[in-house]
Amino acid sequence: MTEDYLHFLWNNKRILAPDLTLVNGNSLTVLSFGNYNKYLKGPDFNFAAIELDGIKFYGPIEIHVKSSDWYAHKHHLDSNYNSVILHVVYEHDKEVVQDGRHLPVLELKKHIDWKHWEKHKRLLLGSENILCEKSLALLPDIYIHNMKMKSLVQKLNDRVKLVESYLQFDSEPFYFFIAGAFGSNLNNRAFLNLAQSVPRKQLILLNASQRFKLLISESGILAKDKRIETWHFRSTRPRNFPTVRLKQFSELLGAMAFTKINESIEVKEMIGQLYSELNRVLNQAQLKISESFRNNLIINGLVPFLWFLSNKYQDDRFQDEAVAILTQLKAEDNHIIRKWRSKQISIDTAFDSQGLLALYRYNCCHKKCLSCEIGNQVLKN
Predict the structure, then answer these.
(1) Looking at the structure, do residues 188 and 295 belong to the same domain, yes or no?
(2) Does 11 fall in a domain?
(3) How far apart are CA 199 and CA 194, in angstroms?
(4) In a domain, 199, yes or no
(5) What is the pLDDT of residues 271-324, one digit of tens each?
(6) Which residue among 91, 167, 181, 235 is least enclosed by CB atoms within 10 Å?
(7) Could you tell me which of 142, 122, 140, 118 has the C-alpha nearest to residue 131?
């Protein structure tokens, strides 16, 4: 038994019992199962309501495989759990006292739908890369769309958090987002380290040759020991080698008018100027940038930057424009996207491909079907 599965049962009200009884023999009626607290600290379900022997209680519910997990997870030291009204467990093996109060315990072992549990186990034991692939065609598109959006938001938030960890008080955020995008997945952090070491203001004072030499020197890419540790050449094609991307990055810094990025003007106008300027530079022949990599820089550089601005100014218009840009770009084509396409999933734009790549990364790879709306629907049926 797993805690995630118990969360799924409680969240979907799949408890096989009209009349429930606590381990001490008292009767229990669940008036409200509560709201699933999936991401924040504290009890698993908030705003629940129960009735114990005719008395109503309102508050949070905590769920564990064993009641002794309360102590294993150190909840007895956390005042956030003092108001828990019900402890739901698969197996009761220890009395729990919190804030001087014995917690009422509901044991679920005899209320489990074991046929459903076996279905869940078979799903997770599957050898397919996308475990629910045989059921995808039967699901309404809304569940796939919702998970694309949720996964994309998670990916963009993670990208913003990563770049923010490199920013200093006088850093130019857009410079860092573009630098990280040039590194793609393998050399993302190496490019961010380089951007931290060499400010853009220093580079634009140099001519093209000097600028590239400084970037190469500061990168340490020619030192064998540092190259192995920091810069990755393996699993990349020659056109994607870090030295090639550094040359293109240097050329872009010389060609792009960063001064045109004005955060004080109207949101849509500012984004339009930035998008046009970036496109103008990326389309220049001397950069020798392919269409797919040009789109990559927009997807992984400009779009996360707009997400960053949305968080910075608490303005959702930046996020709306970021999503709009993704819907205007062609979908990427790689082995993961081809897996989704083989399941008859429609993938037309970068919004589709980015959402599905993130879904695969965050959920499918880790078999987190119980955290996924698609997996939940498969298991509900």
Answers:
(1) yes
(2) yes
(3) 9
(4) yes
(5) 777 778 887 888 876 778 888 888 999 999 999 999 999 999 898 999 999 999
(6) 235
(7) 122
